[in-house]
Amino acid sequence: MKMAAETETGKGEVEWEVKIPEKKLKDRLFFENLKAMVIDTQMCSRCLTCVSICPSELIVNEEDIVDFPNYEDKCLDCGACVRVCPRYDYKPKSGLGDYIEFTAGQSKRFKGQDGAMGTEFIFSAIDMGLIDRGLFVDRDEQWRTSVFHVRGKEQLEKLPLGGTKYVFADILPELKKAVMFSKVGVGVVGTPCMVSGVRKLQEEYPVFREKVKLVIGLFCTENFHYNEVSKYLIEKGVDFSKLIKTDIMKGKFVATMTDKEVKFKVSQLTSILPSGCNVCTDFTAVESDVSVGSVGSVAGF
Ligand SMILES: Cc1cc2nc3c(=O)[nH]c(=O)nc-3n(C[C@H](O)[C@H](O)[C@H](O)COP(=O)(O)OP(=O)(O)OC[C@H]3O[C@@H](n4cnc5c(N)ncnc54)[C@H](O)[C@@H]3O)c2cc1C
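Predict the joint structure of the above. Result:
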């Protein structure tokens, strides 16, 4: 299938390869298949790969539940959503995957959550000309996430881009835009479920294979929905206007503010742990090109 797309150079044509998958529930629409197998079974990781690829653009993330209002009438029944969903034919991943080297790293030029290697990899790839944009998770003053395209280090001087936000971010829908606008290549950083979503997109659509040049995975045990975690943190005494860093370290959630620290056992968050995280066993993002995390390294690396 060929699709008209607006790129930085004007209108262009992008080739999309769409294979029609087999339905598990025969005689039902593809979105109904996704809903029955992934959403209703609480397997959905909220990676939003389906949202990013639905050609009708009607799959939405409604209060952290993936939905398609009026899908009975509006689903095109093309199968794209089930094709790219990492949880549709879920084969849990674990361990380290194939690796070349482990190292404790620290950037000499950037500050970040730990060693700022997430930031360093993206900007090194830009400096090397491997990519011309990278996707970063930004936040507002209330720690709601948004996704930002970085193209040069000057942007870091104005934006608090480094650092971990323990809240889901809509990275995959933004990746589709980045792929459309990039002339050279795109780098993306995400949690393991998102990395799996990127790989699915690359398996299914040549444009993602060609354009996504660097996939950085973050070690991850869990992530949280904004409404739930922010309510919990406020009850614990966190003042978002003073919050500068959040961390999960040695089983404790640590919120560092300008004037104090709030610390509690992360197990206290079990009741708000998203169901999609509960079924996940991929701590290291085994499908990434490079994985970064703090576990196993001394502080600051
Ligand atoms: C939800 C979550 C859970 C994590 N759990 C663990 C863990 O259990 N053990 C462990 O060792 N490490 C964990 N990490 C990784 C760790 O917090 C650091 O991100 C990692 O060590 C890299 O640090 P850095 O200084 O190199 O990154 P930086 O240079 O500070 O860059 C941080 C990168 O993380 C991205 N990012 C920030 N928030 C999010 C988000 N919500 N979703 C996707 N990307 C985001 C930013 O875009 C940026 O690219 C987790 C990260 C996240 C987002």
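The chain has eleven helices and twelve strands.
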